[in-house]
Write a structure and sequence with these properties.
Layout: H1 8-17, E1 22-27, H2 34-44, E2 49-55, H3 57-64, H4 73-81, E3 88-92, H5 98-104, E4 108-112, H6 123-128, E5 132-136, H7 144-151
Parallel strand pairs: 1-2, 1-4, 2-3, 4-5
């Protein structure tokens, strides 16, 4: 399901009332590829519910430059929502997911292998609440930037 930030607290309260283990990850997910799908599948296996925070179009532009995103936030959220591993998707406009992580307070915070625990935004908060941070290795040779370069004939 695609859920708004306003709807998120009620959704999370219902999950917690059921004793669900909540996993959270985030990203731009601009051109979904096998690396994303495998990463999300591994993340989902770490708990009962996987919530994915997706950078808004404005956030992606600030982080990646004026030619990004390729796909709109609505399209990126819809594609993620269609994946079996993903239980809920929410869009955030900030440059980092810190506020969203503070709202979700996941049991498990997951990021890809291009991060270390020291560089994961929200890691300290999650650990302070008794949660854990998991770094999932990247699938070699799979990235949105590499795909875009190939499409432009640069790679």
């Amino acid at each position: 399901m695609i859920i708004t930030r306003d709807e998120l607290p009620r959704y999370l309260a219902a999950l917690r009332a059921e004793g669900k283990r909540i996993v959270f990850t985030n990203g731009c997910f601009d051109i979904l590829h096998r690396g994303h799908v495998e990463y999300l599948s591994v993340a989902r296996q770490l708990g009962d519910v996987l919530i994915v925070g997706v950078n808004s179009d404005a956030s992606v532009r600030r982080l990646k430059g004026p030619e990004r995103p390729i796909n709109s936030q609505e399209d990126r959220a819809a594609v993620l929502d269609a994946l079996r591993a993903v239980d809920a998707v929410t869009i955030f406009d900030e440059d980092t997911p810190a506020e969203l992580i503070a709202t979700v307070q996941p049991d498990v915070l997951v990021k890809g292998g291009d991060y270390t625990e020291a560089t994961v935004v929200g890691a300290d908060l999650v650990r302070s609440k008794g949660g854990r941070v998991v770094i999932v290795p990247l699938l070699e040779g799979r990235s949105t930037s590499a795909l875009i370069a190939r499409l432009r004939g640069l790679g």
